[in-house]
Amino acid sequence: MKINRNTQIPNMIVYGVLYAIIFGVSIWLLAFHKENPTNWVLYVLMTVAVLAALAHFLLHLRKKNQQSA
Questions:
Q1: What is the C-alpha separation between 60 and 52, in angstroms, rounded?
Q2: Ramachandran region of residue 24, left (φ > 0), alpha (ψ -120 to 50) or beta?
Q3: Model confidence at 34, in pLDDT bands (50, 70, 90)?
Q4: Which of the four pLDDT bands, split at 50, 70 and 90, describes residue 37?
Q5: Torsion angle of C-alpha atoms 20, 37, 43, 25, degrees rounded to 10
Q6: Would residue 17 count as lying in a domain?
């Protein structure tokens, strides 16, 4: 039995999972720790995670479209 170790997980999946984890942890902390004095930090982290994901996906699509042209 031969194992192919050259398979690569697409970047879109890796970054999508990363951003989902950051966003999910932030939501969980906001939902269950309402008196947390650092809530504003979590809102900033959620916003940064969403903007970073959008920027990454848009840049990836732009690069893909430029290569196909």
A1: 12
A2: alpha
A3: low
A4: low
A5: 0
A6: yes
Within a domain: 5: no
CA separation, residue 19 to residues 1, 7, 40, 47, 52 (Å): 36, 22, 18, 11, 8
Domain total in the chain: 1
Residues 12 and 19: their CA atoms lie apart, in Å, by 10
Range of the domain at 36: 11-68
Whole-angstrom distance between the N-terminal and C-terminal Cα of the chain? 41
In a domain, 4, yes or no: no
Residue 47 has phi, psi (to 5 degrees) of -65, -45
User: Does some domain include residue 3?
Assistant: no
